[in-house]
Write a structure and sequence with these properties.
It is a single chain. By secondary structure, the chain is of the alpha+beta class. The protein has a single domain, classed as 2-Layer Sandwich (Alpha-D-Glucose-1,6-Bisphosphate, Chain A, domain 4). It has three helices and seven strands. Strands 1-7-6-5-4-3-2 form a seven-stranded antiparallel beta sheet, covered by helices on one side. β6 and β7 form a beta hairpin. It is globular, with a radius of gyration of 15 Å.
Length: about 140
């Protein structure tokens, strides 16, 4: 297990645009490192997302329970996959025409050796951020 605090990143869009993106169809399509996404609503603000994710060149099944807490953030619990047991939150902070994003989590993996876990987590967080950031930039450009 590794505790990770990743603070100080931002999206180049106001908070309302970030939430529009997160709750729209563009969000899933933005993640080119995933395929075969299936979203199952299980509550007012809770979904279970199953998908295949490309990890180190291999497609693996991942299942996440995602709780949206607008406008504060999103809580994610990894139910299946190489990071099963992981719990993290993304906190969004309005900063005018930008939105701060901070990630806090307890990451674990029954498959990734402990010495490699932090690097794997940080690489995945960066990939997801890059995909979201590019899509949000595209959304802002269309407005």
């Amino acid at each position: 297990m590794v505790l990770i605090k990743d603070e100080g990143s931002h999206f180049d869009a106001p908070l309302s645009t970030v939430w529009e993106f997160l709750q729209g169809e563009m969000h899933g399509a933005a993640h080119v490192s995933t395929r075969n996404q299936h979203v199952k609503p299980v509550g007012e603000n809770v979904v279970v997302l199953s998908m295949e994710q490309n990890m180190n060149g291999q497609w693996v099944k991942v299942v996440n329970r995602i709780t949206a807490l607008p406008p504060l953030g999103v809580a994610i619990e990894v139910l299946e996959g190489p990071m099963a047991g992981t719990k993290l939150v993304n906190i969004y902070t309005p900063k005018g025409n930008k939105t701060g994003i901070d990630v806090y989590g307890e990451f674990m993996s029954p498959q990734i050796p402990p010495a490699q876990l932090e690097g794997a987590v940080r690489a995945n967080l960066q990939q997801v951020f890059d995909e979201d950031s590019a899509a949000i930039h595209g959304l802002v450009s269309k407005k």
